[in-house]
Amino acid sequence: MIEKIDLxxxxxxxxxxxxxxxxxxxxxxxxxxxxCETLRRNFRRGVVLEEDVVAVDRARLEQEAKVNExxxxxxxxxxxGFSHSNVRNKDPKDPRNSLFKEYVRIVGETKPLACVIExxxxxxTSKTQCGAPVIDIITSELDQLxxxxxxxxxxxxDFGVPQFRKRVFIVGIRKDQPGAYEWPIPSQSQPITCWExxxxxxxxxxxxxxxxxKYAYSPKNDYQRLLRxxxxxxxxxxxxxxxxxxxxxRFAEIRHGESxxxxxxxxxxxxxxxxxxxxxxxxxxxxxxxxxxxPCNTVVSSSHSNFIHPYLNRNFTVxxxxxxxxxxxxxxxxxxxxxxxxxxxxxxxxxxDIYNDQRVQVGNAVPPKLAFAIASSLKDCLNAxxxxxxxxxxxxxx
Length: 398
Hints:
Elements: E1 3-7, H1 13-20, E2 24-29, H2 33-42, E3 47-49, H3 58-64, E4 71-75, H4 100-110, E5 114-119, H5 134-144, E6 147-155, E7 166-174, H6 194-198, H7 222-227, H8 245-252, E8 270-271, E9 274-278, E10 288-289, H9 303-306, E11 307-308, H10 318-324, H11 342-347, H12 358-364, H13 368-382, H14 384-397
Parallel strand pairs: 1-2, 1-4, 2-3, 4-5, 10-11
Antiparallel strand pairs: 5-7, 6-7, 8-9
Helix pairs in contact: 1-13
């Protein structure tokens, strides 16, 4: 079995798809404490290194568990440049000045059969201060390491995820491997809708506790059956947020596809610190009610508060967001449900809350079903040499 090293692992959405496709998780590298709790709960056979990737090398990976020669490296390294010193001489858009260089370093040290990078589509239009396309720099770096790189933008909705979510993937195959990577073909002629994804969960309203930890209905479609990985598991992470009466009344005014920017009159958003005045700053992306008969908008780290349930006057629960990201129902998250931003937590002295809460972990994740499509194609590519040898043996014995 081919092993997988996951850098910048987050809560493990990319890894889960690869495991389901037949890869074995050997190492996770993730600096966030609560994300590491999630990884340990759901990937008990893998070694979780709760460290900055800068401090990890092949020797460190070998120390924890031997790195199989047949392994791959995956991850979503941030490609925006950064430097704490000599900033004037650094190009903030040059990936060689960012954590991408650490990803490349580990690929160079461990020599995987292949590597996979995930990022936002904006990467393809980004240029350095000198005008060089960032994607050209990344593919050139991989080529120099001995890999054949290719990239494509995929939409999760095309691969059985009830969500419009475009991401760029870069796949590099080691040049001594005979197989050529082929991008997965969209599997969904009819996208799965938001309501198809969550309609069997208990429909609790704001301020109520979950009346039961069991499903509200029998599975209504194949997607719901797929995510019910065990029979009658307790439903976790499904506590609704507690909204004020004023917020609930505002939500009631918002129709499908609308947001708080469409609310006027008495229910319009109020100015901070003055509930009698209508706010002059209203954002169209806030409190957007999702269409029940369409895939959800892109789930991001703020979706827990930005999106409204198709029918109920509340935000999505974390479990509903997990469903919209295609995580199975037995996937359990570490950390707290929701906390203040890291900057605000530090300012208030809440040093125990400076990690990625559950909504951030889910929003930052690669949908497992999309990862599965990438992984399945990669597995076919890496098995090309084995299949070629088997065909040769069959021919010799004929």
